[in-house]
Amino acid sequence: MQIFFHDGERRLRAESGYGQLAAGLAAELPLLGHRLDFAFDPAADVCLHICPPSSIRPERLPLRQAAFTMHELEHLPEAKQGWVGVLNSVDLVLTPTAWNRDVWRRLGVRTPIEVVPLGIDPHVYRPARTKHFTVLTVHENLGSDSSRENWRDTLRAYYAAFGGRSDVELIIKTWRWKPGDWEAAKDEAAAELDLAGEAVPAISVVDDELGADEMRDLYQRCWLFLKNANREGWGLPASEAAACGAPLAASRIEPLLSHLPEDTQWFEPGDRDALAGILVSACEAQQRAMQRAHRHTWRGTAELTGRALVRHFG
User: Fold this and answer.
1) Residue 106 to residue 75: CA distance in whole angstroms
2) I need a labelling partner for 136 at 20 to 30 A (CA). Which of 106, 159, 180, 284 fits?
3) What sign for the dihedral angle of Cα 208, 214, 215, 217?
């Protein structure tokens, strides 16, 4: 649709709620195929007001009009008594909650009302952890049969859980490792599961010497810290990860059982199927967390706004 976008340049003053709404819609509606005019064009299909009713003068525009507006009280103070008349003079009211819609109705607004939740910019407001599912583990002597870490089980369980997926990553922090033997083990594990090319889920190996701040960043960005050891004296990385708020999964051995948090997800050493199940479950929890975090975005607001306008004015 061709939309005359009337917001009083609030999109340029994003410190206010209306400003953020206007900026979000101004950015997203064109990406959905709508044309926005910020000056009056009589060829427009509709005028979309993004402002309080006090800033709307419906009688001045020879266009069909929609108003995206809201109110924080269940009554109108004396200075806002004229708002009902303004909203009854436009052709469609968009408001962010069912509560707002019900308030407008009780106050006497007879114009059709549609509920369109407000959004956020998911590129700016996001969890501290990565957008995709990331597992972090620490395996000393990666690629070596002398490692006290069950890295072969980690590798096979990860491939079994996520073969064919591109939205996951296993990060392995290692030292004193054998890159050639590691690469051969990866190829062998992939061949066992008939994985090749893009079907092989991503693995990153970090063998740099990292300071405390860099390790903290790794712990904080992962959705699961995995401690898959066959023997251990204490397991400081798991304690560090727990201190950074990372969810934990660990092999059921002492002394890990003695000090890791109660909500640690345990698996028996060598039980690849159980470990793969834990990885899948943690990934599903990550997806739910991302859906919760980004359940309302400006793209979603724009999609619902565009659909409402097309239904009423298209």
Assistant:
1) 9
2) 180
3) negative
Those residues with Cβ within 8 angstroms of residue 74's Cβ, 6 or more apart along the chain or in another chain: 103, 106
Amino acid at 163: G
Distance of CA 111 to the CA centre of its chain: 35
- Say how far apart CA 298 and CA 294 lie, in whole Å: 10
Q: Which residues pair with 251 in a beta bridge?
A: 267
Q: Can you list the pairs that 78-81 forms with residues at least 24 positions away whose Cβ atoms lie under 8 Å?
A: 80/53, 80/54
Burial of 9 (0-12, 13-18, 19+ CB in 10 A): exposed
CATH 3.40.50.2000 for the 133-293 domain, yes or no: yes
Supply the CATH classification number for the domain 2-121+295-313.
3.40.50.2000
The pLDDT of residue 224: 98
133-293 has the same fold as 2-121+295-313: yes
Question: Average pLDDT per run of 10 along the chain, which is 314 residues long?
Answer: 93 84 96 96 96 92 96 94 97 97 97 96 85 92 89 97 97 94 97 96 95 94 96 93 96 96 96 98 95 93 97 94
Nearest alpha-carbon partner for 217 in 206, 228, 230: 206
